[in-house]
Amino acid sequence: MLYITQLIYIKPGQETVFHQFEEVAIPLIAKYNGSLLLRVRPDEKSIIESNTKHPYEIHLVQFPAEQDLQNFMKDEERKKFLHLKEQSIESVVLIKGEEM
Fold first, then answer.
1. What is the DSSP string of 3-72?
2. 2-98 belongs to which CATH class?
3. Which InterPro entries match (predicted)?
């Protein structure tokens, strides 16, 4: 099982555009055998300690295999809305891991 954690940083004022992209992208995860396990929007009160800027959202997603993730990334429907992602997201830290 492959696990993907994303720390997502949004451009100021682009939250609505980001949500529009997520409305398309998140349902497509299941099409490629994946599952959104956790979607968190942390606020200042939830952060105990930090040495970095805190993200707008944190996603934890699982896919059975790397190929499933690659197929999701290449999805034609998702590609139609990548302009929303590019418009709204400042940066993403993507962490890949495996179940131990």
1. EEEEEEEEPTT-HHHHHHHHHHHHHHHHHTT-EEEEEE---GGG-S--SSPPPSEEEEEEESSHHHHHHH
2. alpha beta
3. Dimeric_a/b-barrel
